[in-house]
Write a structure and sequence with these properties.
DNA-binding (chains A, B); 2 domains; Arc Repressor Mutant, subunit A; alpha+beta; homodimer; six-stranded antiparallel β-sheet; Chorismate lyase; transcription (chains A, B); WH-like_DNA-bd_sf (chains A, B); DNA-binding; about 250 residues; elongated
Amino acid sequence: MNLLFSPQRFDDPGAGPLYLQLQRRIAEAIASGRLAPGDSLPAERDMATMTGLSRVTVRKAVQALVLSGQLVQRRGSGTFVAHKVEKLEQALSLLTSFTEDMQRRGRTVESVWLSRAVHSPSPEEVMALGLGADDRAARLARVRRSDGIPLAIERASLSTAFLPDPEVVETSLYGVLEARGLRPTRAVQRISAANLGPRDAELLEVAEGVAGLKIERVSYLPSGQVIEFTRSLYRGDAYDFAVELKLT
Amino acid sequence: MNLLFSPQRFDDPGAGPLYLQLQRRIAEAIASGRLAPGDSLPAERDMATMTGLSRVTVRKAVQALVLSGQLVQRRGSGTFVAHKVEKLEQALSLLTSFTEDMQRRGRTVESVWLSRAVHSPSPEEVMALGLGADDRAARLARVRRSDGIPLAIERASLSTAFLPDPEVVETSLYGVLEARGLRPTRAVQRISAANLGPRDAELLEVAEGVAGLKIERVSYLPSGQVIEFTRSLYRGDAYDFAVELKLT
DNA sequence: AAGTGGTCTAGACCACATG
DNA sequence: ATGTGGTCTAGACCACTTC
């Protein structure tokens, strides 16, 4: 530990900014196992005096490692090497139920509703759902958790023609639709990456700016009509989507 | 503009940290169109005096918006509202050629080799490629660009049994393999999100910490043998992968 | 009560871009 | 030459956790 934070080599010219040098040192210590998951780092002030850097510079190095998921900070408690999160693998080309998926893995499932209500549709919803001037949109938003860890935020929108009362949805939206005789047969998903904003980061219990996987799904009825439009945000560190390719 | 950076309302109690208040203000100005793409913001020092905040605090607000892709900073030049990047949509369940893909869209394609060489395999490569003790790994790394914008970093690994001399690959790896009678028929991709590290961020010409889409692909020969293992890193702001779901 | 991370300040120097 | 963002410092107070 004394070695890790010794002021030596911080005067090297051409080694780049000081915060990057420190960041690299810590990252290497983690990669090599000299810092193991769960280990605590010295307090920021202590690292500063040990390295001869200012606390602001130490913080900048630490922040980058928090963003990349290698460190975790807890206010009032300390800075720790992150535990490896076993990535959950999920097939992308099958529409699977979150609940069944997790139970098959022997994990607990919790789902916290953020809202279930009817709103005037946003322009995005009008586009995606093909709504008319007087149509209204039912919105369902929830946080999906497993074993106490939040994994994803799901925000679904439907025309009230298909779901007049969103309050009736307890667990499975598709279950409720099925009971009403509505069965999507095709869906298209679009996947991209984005840094989480303050709100979403808080809901997923990660630092602001952490990378998240954004998935937008549009589901279609056999008639070709759009029935549902869902935007999900997955924790990038906890999820892994798998796709099998057909090669011609 | 005077309005945007007026010190009013920065004394509101209960509105959260100052940098978040400023961040929110700027984000709203962009969303509402009062700040249009390409517009320049005042210099950091000027924003600081206008708002009555310190430069460090202004920087923290700006940094977050740079991370989320809403602002762009150019050293020596200024801070600007980012131009909307039209997201490139790509089908995930087809193995498409980057070159053909872009040309079909009427875009130029450039590919910059970072390295083409033979190495001792890393543990990861041994695992993925199923290498033996004496096998060596051919590595190909390049940055894919289109219209002058870097879009992705591709790092491919193969056993030298399949590709003894990586230097022969000029544009298409699959083309070279095909010429050698090697034709993958199945591939599995795993997708997740990650914050870009200093090196990768530089190669993709974005700020460190920006969200990237990480795709790992393993391709198989008809015999079931693994022929290739590729790790790609796409700019999260410029790419969008599409998958169609089969619903049973 | 003591220690931790979170926020904030005022001021400084450097490297780079543009006129 | 001037202005810009990039880095860095020393010191301060707050909110929270832990003892």
